[in-house]
Amino acid sequence: MKKLAAIYQIVVSLSLLVSVAAYGAEATTLKQATWSQILTQAKGQTVYFNAWGGSQEINDYLLWANKQLEQQYGVTLKQVKVTDIAETTQRLLAEKSANKNRNGSVDMVWINGENFASMKKYNLLYGPFIQQLPNWQMVNQALPVTTDFTQATEGLEAPWGVGQLVFIYDKQTLAKPPKSFAELLTFAQAHPGKISYPKPPEFHGTSFLKAALLELTANNSVLYHPIKLPEQQALFDSTTAPLWHYLDKLNAVAWHQGKQFPNSAAQTIQLLDDGQLLLALTFNPNAALAAIEQGNLTESATTYAFNAGALTNIHFLAIPWNANAKAGALVAINFLMSPAAQAHKADTTLWGDPTILKASAFNKMSHHQHFSLYPSQAEPDPSWGNAIAQAWLARYNH
Amino acid sequence: MRLKLMVTLTLLLFIAPLLVGFGGVIAPAFSWLPVLGLQQLSFNGWLQMLAWPGLSHSLLLTLFTGLGSTLLALCWCFIILKQCWHSQYWFKIERLLVPVLAMPHVAFVLGLVLTFSANGWLARILHHLGFSQHLYPSVIHDSYGIGLLLTLAIKETPFLLLMSMAVLQQLNIKQLQQVAASLGYNPQQTWFRLILPLWLPKLRLAIYAVTGYSLAVVDVALIIGPNQPSTFAVLVWQWFNEPNLELLPRAAAGAMLLLLLTAAIIILLRFIEWLLISYCNQWQYRGVTANVKIHNKTGSNHRIAIKLSQALLLFPLLMLPTLAIWSVAQRWRFPDLFPSRYSWRFWQQQLEPLQSLMTNSLILALISSLSAIILAIVCLEYRQKYQRGLSPWLITVPMIAPQISLLFGMQTLIYTLPGQHYWLWLSWSHWLYVFPYVYLALDGAWRSYDVRLDQTARSLA
Fold first, then answer.
1. Distance from chain centroid for Cα A302
2. Share of chain B above pLDDT 90, in %
3. 3-state secondary structure of A232
4. Contact predicate A109/A50, CB 8 Å
5. Please, what's the largest Cα pairwise distance for chain B?
């Protein structure tokens, strides 16, 4: 019996050793590989890309990207649609618990903010890799492409596009939309039942709260440092008091008197079209144009930002530490950052997501982005988003 | 002997994931999650859960919708059976059952939303008739969960009817009715005093399955249920999706609570059944009471029941036209009755990816149901032969236990196993949920089979 146990132990430790050695070997070879070696390695790989699947335009874009990747590089890009990328964080965590350090089920993720912070903290990401990507040289360094909601990206994620929290309204039904949160309240009181926001902790809903807090609080510099609860409860309470005061008044005159909230930003667009709301919310500054093209909004719909600027963040692409097709994922990410893919993405009739490349990257192309970004407001520390959403639920979720 | 081996295999296939599933949720519920550096047992997850605002409200909503929909479906089912069993109309019901059961819950619920929401089809029609939108009572996301309760009840009634078919065949209703009639019972009394007490215990497992499903359902509740707060299962699901992984113990504690709640409700249902049938059984023995009034009303009751069954069974199918129109609508603004622009683009764009998805689903369904049918037959044969079978309680565990309570643990188990046989594991996890239904469905047929036939056959060599 003892002997058996000893043998068992040897076998286990040997197999562990082998797998660790193999893992290490693979990691070093890929990290030192030249781009052409990576291209060769990637050929024939299938990249399982876990990405939010809630937008028809984006899903269509990824189908297009897959066709291009197959033709040009022999890489297959498969979108695994998730309703929230936190589902993938969860999945990766389960893989980490099971010690599955190779051949993971996810090859690429679309993330930013809190999910990046979590994945980075628990070492769920591969990298740094961005320096290896040829198209990294064309990235517009004037954009905050190396920080993600105040967190340093450390080369663990590559920028893909720009999100700006803006509003959509119908020029025909509304002549003068509100230009600040203060004006929004007066406006809502004049049009009871016609204003709302997605229910936090939904991403857009939480972002709406963050933007409001940035305008309303006297001390918004603290928002750019992590808040630790319950230790810093007093600071949290004093900073957010004006927000709750404001929301008490806004919710009272909101859609369904604040007893119901839309579930998503897409729903606010639909409610705008149905005439139930006067303003819709989106993180895509060109959402209105794309929605008109897709038949979801009337021709007279348009996008605008508040005077203080639009809450702006970059969305990124990353590779899990245990991804099976790392080379394929690198090729796919590099392609998605290419001028051709970025121009196609910025096409307002398709998706309209702003590019992260320098203007000079598009010199050789006839088509490129025909719009400029709104003045931007930087995202607060991710811990604030979490804390505000939880506090919102505590106050209004019953 | 081979039979016994197969039964043991089934048992093993069955118990392993359940144990791992439970283990995988109990450990994090008490904050034991080494990957996150949590290695000290504590009640933090439970405390965080209890501190959640609106927790009791959410639990009450779950109880109301879960229990309410089960009881309502059960009543509807009994009324339909009582009036239509062995009538000519029953064949029509039987034929309708299959398409209705085959309709996915989500398709039905989306159809409901598109028809009944504040800007759905019905609201559009009312708008054109001159009614204000504000008068329209919305059953979508209504804060009492009435819409969710009705939806679940409508969708569960056909399942209970299907399960009752086997039970009633086994009971030999015709004979029972003849005997009852010769004793002077009218049909109404026969059903309430003779058939109900026999039918209810035999339908027990199916009822628990419906209850377990209704209490733990996430997708349907998300689309149509209340969201301020939402039902508890949705809340737990949202907790599992929280990006801040340190809050995972809270989600696990929630999953445990949901499991305990479901178990408690099932025990309660068992108690009610016992009370009704064994304890408060005076009504069964009261004998014949002449009730001419009821007797006269039977005809109209029959008509009402037929209408009810028609409404219940056809209602889900009525959603299909709405879904079909929306699938080709490009622009359909409120209050237009029909889209102003049509387009095939959804079909065109999605056809290719859909093909592979559909093939996958089809293969998966075939594998898991075929293996489930084979193993269920084996287990039933074994029981027939040796009078010893799988415990019905064990079999219903996957049906009753909330899926979100088990999945995290099962996921971890699958990743621990070497290799990349996702197909195998996926089929297995499907099988785990298919097997109990197949077993239950076949159970009645096996029970109604007369063993004496075998004996006679054998005696005749």
1. 23
2. 19
3. coil
4. yes
5. 78
Chain-chain contact of B241 with A114 (C-beta, under 8 angstroms): no
Q: A201-205, B238-242, B393-397: which has the minimum mean pLDDT?
A: B393-397
DSSP lists the bridge partners of residue A162 as A314
A255 shares a domain with A321: no
Q: Cβ separation of B415 and A100 shorter than 8 Å?
A: yes
Q: Give the Cα separation of A246 and A240 in Å (integer).
A: 10
Question: In chain B, helix, strand, coil percent, each to 5?
Answer: 80, 0, 20
Q: With an 8 Å Cβ cutoff, is B228 touching chain A? A: yes
Asked if A157 and A144 count as a contact pair (C-beta separation under 8 A), the reply is: no
Chain B residues whose CB is inside 8 A of the A296 CB are 331
CB A335 within 8 A of CB A65: yes
Q: State how many domains chain A has.
A: 2
The amino acid sitting at A360 is S
Are B35 and A115 a contacting pair at CB < 8 A?
A: no
Token pair of B346 as six digits: 């959804």
Domain boundary among B291, B308, B343: B343
Put simply, the answer to whether A122 touches B35 (Cβ < 8 Å) is yes
Report yes or no on B49 lying in a domain: no
Q: Do A97 and B35 touch (CB under 8 A)?
A: yes
Of B35, B243, B331, the CB nearest to A118: B243
ipTM score here?
0.74
Which residues of chain A have a CB within 8 Å of the CB of B240? 90
Give the length of chain B.
Answer: 461
- Going by the DSSP 8-state scheme, the letter that residue B192 receives in this structure is I
* B349 CB within 8 Å of a chain A CB: yes
The answer to whether residue A60 neighbours chain B at the CB level (below 8 Å) is yes
Residue A215, domain extent: 166-304+379-396
Q: What is the mean pLDDT of chain A?
A: 88
Q: Amino acid identity of B189? A: Q
Supply the mean pLDDT for chain B: 83
CB contact under 8 A, A117 and B349: no
Closest residue of B to A111, CA-based?
B243
Checking DSSP bridges between strand A166-170 and strand A301-304, what pairing results, if any? antiparallel
Please calculate the CA angle A195-A58-A213 and round it to the nearest 5 degrees. 35
The encoded tokens of residue A248 equal 């008490």
pLDDT value of residue A26: 52
Which chain B residue shows the shortest CA-CA distance from A276?
B119
**∠B358-B361-B362 over CA atoms, to 5°?**
85
Same domain assignment for residues B396 and B438:
yes
Is B53 in Cβ contact with A394 (below 8 Å)? yes
B244 touching A (Cβ < 8 Å): yes
- Which residues of chain B neighbour A386 with C-beta distances below 8 Å? 243-244
> Which one of B57, B415, B420 has the shortest CB-CB distance to A95?
B415
More confident residue, A185 or B384: A185
pTM comes to: 0.82
Which residue does chain A place closest to B409, by CA atoms? Answer: A94
A305 near A286, Cβ under 8 Å?
no
Whether residue A98 lies within 8 A of chain B, CB to CB, comes out as yes
d(CA A336, CA A111): 14
Chain A stretch 284-343, residues whose beta carbon is closer than 8 A to a beta carbon of chain B: 294-296, 298
Taking the C-alpha atoms of residue A100 and residue A279, their distance in angstroms, rounded to an integer, is: 46
Residue A43 in any domain: the answer is yes
Looking at the predicted structure, is the pLDDT value of residue B63 above 70?
yes
Contact A165, A283 (CB under 8 A): yes
Domain containing residue A347: CATH number: 3.40.190.10
Indicate whether B104 and B243 sit together in one domain.
yes
DSSP structure class, residue A221:
G
Contacts of A394 in chain B (CB under 8 A): 53
Q: CA-to-CA distance for B164 and B201, rounded, in angstroms?
A: 11
**In the structure encoding, which two tokens stand for residue A199, read together?**
């229910």
Chain A CB contacts of B34 under 8 Å are 97
